[in-house]
Amino acid sequence: MCKRILYILPLVLLLIFTTNVSKGQQMTTIKGLITDSLSGEPLPFVNIIFVGKHIGTTTDFDGKYNLSTQWASQQIQVSFLGYKTYTKVIKTGQSQTINIKLVPSNIQLNAVTIKGEKKRYRNKNNPAVDLIKNVVDKKDFNRQKSLKYYQYDKYEKVEMSLNNFTERFQNKKSLRKFQFIFNYVDTSKVNGKPYLPVYLKETSSRVYYRNSPETMREYIDGDRTVGLEGYLDQDGITSINKSLYTDIDIYNNDIFFMTNQFVSPVSVIAPTFYKFFIVDTSFVDGIKCYNLAFLTRNPQDFGFTGNIWITADTNYAVKKVELGVGKDHSLNFVSDVKIVLDYEQTTSGAWVKSNDETTVDYSFSEKRVGMFAHRTVAYRNRIFNQQMPDSTYGGVQTSIYMEGSRKRGKSWWNENRLIPLSRSEAGVEEMMTKVQNVPAFKRFMDILMLLFAGYKDFGPIDVGPINTFYSFNSVEGFRLRVGGKTNVRFSDRLMLEGFYAYGTKDERHKYLGAVTYSLRKIDNQFLEFPVQALKVTYQHDTKIPGQDLKFFAEDNFLLSFKRGVSDKMTYNDLFKFEFIRELNKGFSYTLTYKYLEQSAAGNWRWDYSDKDPVQKTVDEIKTSEFGINFRYAPNEQFYQGKTYRIPIFNKYPVFQLKVNAGVKDLLNGQYDYQTVTTNFFKRFYMSVAGYGDMEFEAGKIFGKVPLPLLFIHNANQTYAYQLQAYNMMNFLEFATDQYISLNYTHYFNGLIFNRIPLFKKLKFREVMSFKGLYGTISDRNMPTKNGGLFLFPTASDGTPLTYTPDKEPYIEASVGIANILKFLRVDLVKRITYLDHPNVPEYGIRARFKFDF
User: Which of 13, 262, 271, 325 is the most exposed place for a label (fewest CB within 10 A)?
Assistant: First the structure.
């Protein structure tokens, strides 16, 4: 699964209850065209709402509108500045087309004249475009970052709620034991829908900014999460919230929202990306402003629709912004968005945010329960141009949790909460405590965690992962496995884990046992950041040489289906000791000692030739190895699973350096060698062109070692597209003792497909990738040039099966379609070089799950 997938909180919370919504409260759909009664010209940005509700929409540039809801009233009201308000009775529970001709009123505007234009939209001689260009020219002066120093208190709360449910849904038999939850229902001020809060996240902090060198640090004094404790990784949920609902600076060229990159309406490219219209002049907090409406030129592009109020003076500062998305937007599972930003002027002239409010209405289907997310941010106690000690701005982490920040009591929050909780928000903790004590809820969550995390807990023991209980391969035949681990109910410092497996073809027993001891108390997961732990592992098992799966077990059932021949493996007896230490500054290291005995498995013999003309066979090799792995990942975000972490990539790079040393004659080790590998990963954001992921890696081995100890490069013979593997390479096909590799994938996010009629309706997104590998084997490790080394494997006719990519780089590339059915990516992969190798495909179709917004 991809980076953003699992970490989508709304999907997880959505599954708390049964989601089929009854048809008892039917949909009301109205659509039509609104025009000027005199000229017949279409009117853009006309407001249409259901009377007595907060549910409404606006017309598009062509005067068309479309509005559907289960909570319609019997009247709609149509209003537009310069025209008489129009009210009409409609029929609820039906679909109907209502075309309306608005009658101009006698109101005359001194500053602007509103006129529907049927002619083609142009930037040239367009006063709205000239106005936004003035805003762009002045933004460096007006924006908050023009100040040398500033600081402020910040309070943020994120509320997740169930919505889109009806009275008949509330009365379902499956919810009889949960009827008390509906006492906490509230009504949205945004769209009038009822909603039920199930999750609340509060953060209280102090923020410090320095202009040169530009640095912003947030010191978090209080952090509190309510809802589904014990089921979800709360640190991971914090990372999810940050990736979904980032702080928006309207003056940036690009705005990160819902893990995607949106073009800002005051971007330098805004005049070519948006259409702008001057609506009127009005006073906002006593300041005269131009009201400028805007919408994307291409409705499917990642951009906003909305209004921006610009001060009617020579400063052209942004006073207020309302952002939304059009009805044809490209976001998945989102039916509506409303973002409101208010700004106020400082004594220095710069404008700063005084209010920040984001509302997202998630909808997986019109007739299913959805999710409602509401984020509110308050700013208080601002201080400008007061310099703090350099240590305040130092370090690489942008967010620093102060000691005790996650253990604040109720009285502390009452004193430090800048915005009071609503009645429903205050009741989340009480309600969820009651819910989690209902046996039916516990059973449901057990099933849910089994499906998503792969484990079923039996008190202090988690059994799983279930996707490894049955698999198959050509060496072991059918592989049956059972395993599990202890959890924090067993101990908050000690974790035991293991499995037993049996192959029906090789008739061998495999097993693993591991003990992890945390040097600090654990609240939820043993990989909980920052990890400080000792781990001892013993494993007797099989392994495919070179295969390196990041987030899956090698015996995952879905990876059993492979192309070609995969009959060469090793039997491993592994003892490993690890000391893992993570620091809050983005730095971590792991110290290891590993003793490994390997023997050939399947259709593989370790033959070698020495001075003796008789070919010899080795049964096993033994290595005794020390290692250290340095990792630097500033401001890293991830979601914590039961036994692994899923990264949430951002703009910050990730560096890794691994150094290992084999010691001969230490505990029967047979080889002296040293290996060094380095890895660099970086995501590049490119505005409307999407984003790209680049990974560079290099490695070198010092010493004389046999084939199993060389770099055997990560091949993939399954039909699943693997990001870090070479998908057209065979297992054991390439080996080196020094190499460099480059992997680049670019996600265009609909840049091309959004301009193709059929594809833009399907919301497909295009993706391209390139993978290259170049390496050599020195003479000391080449069996044809140095005796005592294993011969490389060959086919029955003597054809070599293992090579070095030294004549030219190994290269493969792919083009793919992502967002198929909103969760599937399919790639056409082409192998470009070394097509003369035996049993290698030139083309292949590969697929992977990619859940994304």
Answer: 271
